[in-house]
């Protein structure tokens, strides 16, 4: 006994257009440690092009996350950086990110800033900590204690020092 769906698809199929079957996506159901090892070995056997593409897009995503915090770091350190380039990263870049960012310096003596960003829920703002004045040899630490708090964006008036007027002659109104 055949179903109507299979009959109608066979009826529509002509010699010029063969019957089309849905394409199944490749999924792996892992039930044992042995299957997990086999799946990992399969993912490690990527072609050079696949590995290169994966690294390129991972680095681009890490750069995008770091770019979110550039102005806050520059504001906190009261510097404008010549460069802002992620050289190393760890984490999934969705909930947690450890980033090593090259900020300035010449090729012989580059300076780095390390960023630690965490998001507790999807859609929430990042909580960011940073470690300034690092060198290329400094390892990318994964302990939050190694970082300082990076304040949220400041308001416009935070940088202005508006001392109250002490005398009428010293005050000027705009």
Automatic annotation (TrEMBL):
Annotated segments matching region Disordered: 1-51
Domain of life of the source: Eukaryota
Biased segments, Polar residues type: 1-11, 32-51
Protein name: Uncharacterized protein
């Amino acid at each position: 006994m055949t179903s109507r769906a299979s009959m109608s698809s066979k009826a529509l199929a002509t010699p010029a257009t063969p019957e089309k079957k849905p394409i199944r996506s490749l999924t792996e159901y892992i039930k044992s440690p042995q299957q997990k090892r086999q799946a990992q070995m399969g993912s490690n056997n990527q072609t050079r092009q696949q590995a290169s593409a994966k690294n390129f897009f991972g680095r681009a995503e890490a750069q995008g996350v770091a770019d979110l915090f550039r102005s806050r770091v520059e504001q906190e350190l009261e510097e404008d950086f010549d460069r802002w380039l992620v050289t190393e990263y760890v984490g999934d870049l969705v909930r947690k990110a450890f980033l090593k960012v090259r900020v300035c310096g010449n090729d012989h003596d580059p300076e780095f800033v390390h960023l630690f960003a965490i998001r507790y829920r999807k859609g929430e703002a990042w909580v960011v900590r940073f470690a300034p004045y690092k060198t290329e040899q400094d390892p990318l630490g994964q302990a939050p204690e190694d970082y300082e708090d990076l304040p949220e964006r400041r308001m416009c008036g935070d940088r202005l020092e508006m001392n109250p007027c002490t005398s009428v002659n010293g005050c000027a109104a705009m």
